[in-house]
Amino acid sequence: MPVKSRPSHALTPALRRLGALGLVLGALGVTQTVMAQQSPPVDPVSRFLSDRGIISAAAAESSTVFIDRMRDTTSDMVLSAMNFLGVPYRRGGSSAEEGFDCSGFTRHIFELSLGMVLPHRADDQAKDKSLMTVKRDELRPGDLVFFNTMRRTFSHVGIYVGEGKFIHAPRSGSSVRVEDMREAYWNKRFTGARRATLPATALDQAATDAKPTLR
User: Fold this and answer.
1) Residue 120 annotated as catalytic
2) Which of 22, 70, 133, 169 gets the highest tally of CB atoms within 10 A of its CB?
3) H/E element, 107
4) Is 168 an active-site residue?
5) What is the CA 8 to chain-centroid distance, rounded?
6) Residue 102 known to be catalytic
7) For residue 14, is it within any domain?
8) Does the reported pTM lie above 0.85?
């Protein structure tokens, strides 16, 4: 659904794309120092998850199953979303060809990245029982973030990309872009977040695989 009028951005879609990709690399913990080290490179997603306490250091090293599954909901989803930077806003739109509205964009990314088909309306996505509620201070890349932009609690939605930023389709006349949730406009309108959860059986198996073998 559209967001009330905001100042236009002077940056071209190409420049925004470069800046956004830089943001993703930063959020995933890829630094020049790490890349320059002579030792074997550290998987950036493993480092990102471990540094933020999402998984233990031991799990990051030993559970490739868990890392691969978490990558699906972090780097792959965020990078998929970045591919659509600059796609025009279109009310009711849900594809790059016709354009996106806010919930059409998130629906498309979730289906593309996770094979999960969400409702089209933002408020219905917030109420979807397949998603879990997330506190703002526990946000991870790939989480849905909701805002009250039309005097309704869940009238706008985007995808969190890390470091306080989110990607979304803002309003008519604009295009898919990355913005900072900490800006006054978004900060006071934030109303909640949701996360796609992995099946319990998969998490249990990943945790089992990560445990050291006792002899």
Assistant:
1) no
2) 169
3) helix 102-114
4) yes
5) 23
6) yes
7) no
8) no
